[in-house]
């Protein structure tokens, strides 16, 4: 049985004007108390028993639960008479909890695939698993440092030292805990807060805490401003579209020469310098609800020029630099392999031909599998021929940027769908220009069957661009949750001859 604990003891001082005497978990979100939304979401995700830990105005929460029949077992526990904090409250009721349980805070709106998170927890054998995500304000968030294998190394509570370079990975306030790992801490008076006190203490004493990275929606409703924001996200469909149930659209991006300056092999964090305009470009793609996945070949690992800990620091530097501008990456994936042996200090078991090293498309395929990404609705942006090739093989739309190698590396044949100056132009293409052109193309085809469009004329650039856009439309038919209108075409045997002439110019005009 899956059990979830809701920490519902919060008073909600900062929400007083909206609560009018009610406790924080009963804050109305788009006309429904948050606690009701949480219980529904947990039920929909397979939770069978909810334990609600109450304190402030426990009577009102009990009334709410009694009067709102839920299709689930609910137990209310009062940790009173005095507030104990999130850790104190949970440690006090451990006797009522089962061997493994989920913990959520009473002030968060979420739509999380809980079974998937539980599975990850069990597979790792961790004492506790914490849901982490990057956000658009890491400088004033509690950050978590994670090693290359996803084990938590350190907690960095806000405020941070001004010169501290910490990766953009934030505790999102949802955990899976093993009761046996918490039992030794029960009865401790000093552990008040789960995130600030208990987990750091567990880590110091050798507990194994695992990161669970997720792009799914989870945000807190702690202030009136945040309540307004999550209501907006709920109404506009952002919450549902970020669910693992929904097919995701991704922008895969190369690292060196695309996001940061090309400086030979990068083996130290100080060598990371963002190219001009990159942070704003990444933020534009964040706002367009794309999942952003960096895919990078790192043969320096196989050669022994850089170890995994250093690579993690290099990536911390990258996400830190982006975070200063409110931009973030959902994931960074790297290939540590290299096919040729014969380097002093090399790591022999990484010297192999693999399926992840670009131009192979292994990193894109595994990310698509893990993150429920629709490759045909996705993009690959890079500066080298191997980036373009791996994107084409995976079936995503490809964009060559003229920074870094500018496609002149000559390693494989390079035949990109689009060629633009830099990341800023690439992001504008993906987030603004392509959607406009896809709409225009859809109008032009006027309901013709998309599978039966033949391109009649145009230059080779025109035809490539027209055909890439047409393929994107074909992939959207009836399946895209991001598409409000939906594309429905009439079945017909007729073939439509369409001219691609002028489409490369259209792109140039819209990008300028
Ligand atoms: Zn590899």
Global geometry: globular
Number of strands: 21
Give the CATH class of the largest domain: Alpha Beta
Q: What's the CATH topology name of the largest domain?
A: Spore Coat Polysaccharide Biosynthesis Protein SpsA, Chain A
Ligands (ions, cofactors included):
zinc ion
What is the number of helical segments per DSSP (H or I, 4+ residues)?
17
For the largest sheet, list the strands in their spatial order. 5-4-1-6-11-8-12
Molecular structure report:
The chain is an alpha/beta fold and 512 residues long. It folds into three domains: 3-234, Spore Coat Polysaccharide Biosynthesis Protein SpsA, Chain A, CATH 3.90.550; 247-427, HAD superfamily/HAD-like (Rossmann fold, 3-Layer(aba) Sandwich); 431-511, no CATH class. The chain contains 17 helices and 21 strands. The radius of gyration is 25 Å and the shape is globular. The structure holds zinc ion (ZN). Zinc ion (ZN) binds next to loops.
Please give the structural blueprint.
Layout (H helix, E strand, L loop, with lengths): L2 E6 L7 H4 L8 E2 L2 E2 H11 L4 E6 L3 H10 L5 E6 L6 H8 L7 E6 L2 E4 L2 H11 L3 E6 L9 E4 L5 E5 L13 E9 H4 L11 H11 L4 E5 L3 E4 L3 H12 L2 H4 L8 E4 L24 H10 L3 E7 L1 H5 L4 H16 L7 E5 L26 H10 L7 E4 L2 H10 L2 E5 L16 E3 L2 H23 L7 E3 L4 H17 L19 E3 L4 H9 L1
Parallel strand pairs: 1-4, 1-6, 4-5, 8-12, 14-15, 14-17, 15-16, 17-18, 18-19, 20-21
Antiparallel strand pairs: 2-3, 6-11, 7-13, 8-11, 9-10
The protein binds zinc ion.
């Amino acid at each position: 049985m899956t059990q979830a604990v809701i920490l519902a003891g919060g008073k909600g001082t900062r929400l007083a004007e909206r609560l009018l005497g009610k406790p924080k978990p009963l804050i109305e979100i788009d006309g429904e108390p948050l606690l009701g939304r949480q219980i529904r979401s947990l039920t929909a995700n397979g939770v069978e028993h909810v334990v609600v830990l109450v304190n402030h105005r426990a009577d009102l929460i009990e009334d709410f639960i009694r009067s709102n029949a839920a299709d689930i077992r609910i137990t209310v526990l009062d940790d009173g008479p005095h507030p104990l904090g999130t850790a104190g409250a949970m440690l006090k009721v451990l006797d009522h909890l089962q061997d493994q349980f989920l913990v959520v805070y009473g002030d968060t709106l979420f739509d999380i695939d809980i079974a998937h998170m539980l599975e990850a927890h069990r597979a790792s054998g961790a004492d506790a698993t914490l849901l982490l995500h990057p956000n658009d304000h890491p400088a004033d968030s509690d950050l978590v440092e994670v090693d290359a294998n996803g084990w938590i190394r350190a907690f960095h509570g806000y405020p941070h030292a001004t010169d501290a370079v910490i990766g953009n990975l934030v505790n999102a306030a949802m955990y899976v805990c093993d009761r046996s790992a918490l039992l030794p801490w029960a009865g401790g008076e000093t552990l008040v807060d789960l995130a600030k006190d208990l987990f750091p203490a567990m880590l110091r004493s050798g507990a194994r805490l695992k990161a669970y990275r997720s792009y799914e929606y989870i945000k807190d409703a702690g202030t009136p401003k945040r309540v307004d924001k999550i209501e907006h996200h709920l109404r506009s469909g952002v919450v549902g579209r970020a669910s693992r149930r929904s097919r995701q659209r991704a922008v895969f991006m190369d690292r060196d020469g695309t996001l940061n300056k090309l400086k030979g092999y990068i083996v130290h964090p100080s060598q990371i310098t963002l190219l001009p305009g990159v942070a704003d470009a990444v933020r534009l793609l964040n706002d367009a609800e794309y999942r952003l996945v960096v895919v990078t070949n790192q043969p320096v690992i196989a050669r022994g020029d850089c170890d995994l800990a250093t690579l993690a620091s290099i990536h911390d530097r990258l996400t830190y630099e982006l975070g200063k501008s409110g931009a973030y990456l959902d994931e960074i994936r790297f290939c540590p392999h290299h096919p040729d042996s014969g380097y002093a200090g090399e790591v022999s078991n990484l010297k192999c031909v693999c399926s992840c090293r670009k131009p192979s498309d292994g990193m894109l395929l595994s990310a698509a599998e893990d993150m429920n990404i629709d490759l045909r609705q996705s993009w690959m942006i890079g500066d080298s021929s191997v980036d373009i090739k791996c994107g084409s093989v995976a079936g995503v739309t490809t964009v060559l940027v003229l920074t870094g190698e500018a496609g002149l590396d000559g390693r494989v044949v390079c035949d990109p769908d689009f060629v633009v100056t830099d990341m800023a132009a690439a992001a504008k293409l993906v987030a603004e220009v392509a959607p406009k052109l896809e709409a225009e193309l859809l109008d032009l085809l006027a309901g013709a069957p998309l599978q039966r469009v033949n391109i009649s004329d145009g230059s080779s650039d025109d035809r490539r661009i027209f055909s890439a856009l047409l393929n994107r439309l074909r992939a959207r038919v009836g399946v895209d949750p991001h598409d409000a209108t939906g594309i429905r075409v009439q079945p017909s045997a007729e073939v439509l001859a369409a001219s691609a002439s002028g489409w490369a110019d259209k792109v140039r005009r819209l990008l300028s």
